[in-house]
Write a structure and sequence with these properties.
Blueprint: H1 5-35, H2 40-47, H3 51-60, H4 67-79
Helix pairs in contact: 1-3
């Protein structure tokens, strides 16, 4: 059963969800340290990001100097 294609696909999905959840938690922690408390809407918008976009946010937040930088990033992300 573990060798079946369906089992492997489910396993891969679970692993990706786990990575995404862990990365999202880390990005939120770092972001709040950098720019301060985030709103519930901002949390929801971050939660909706794909793993690829979470990684982009993680890199971008290194250059944020204010919450306005983060807000601009989110607005640009939404425009994509």
């Amino acid at each position: 059963m573990r060798e079946s294609v369906i089992y492997q696909e489910i396993l891969e999905e679970g692993e990706e969800l786990g990575r995404r959840k862990g990365e999202r938690s880390l990005v939120l922690l770092l972001l709040e340290q950098k720019v301060g408390q985030l709103s519930e809407i901002e949390h929801e918008r971050i939660s909706a990001l794909s793993l690829e976009r979470l990684e982009a946010l993680a890199l971008a937040l290194l250059n944020f100097s204010s919450k306005a930088d983060f807000t601009t990033w989110l607005e640009q992300e939404q425009a994509l």
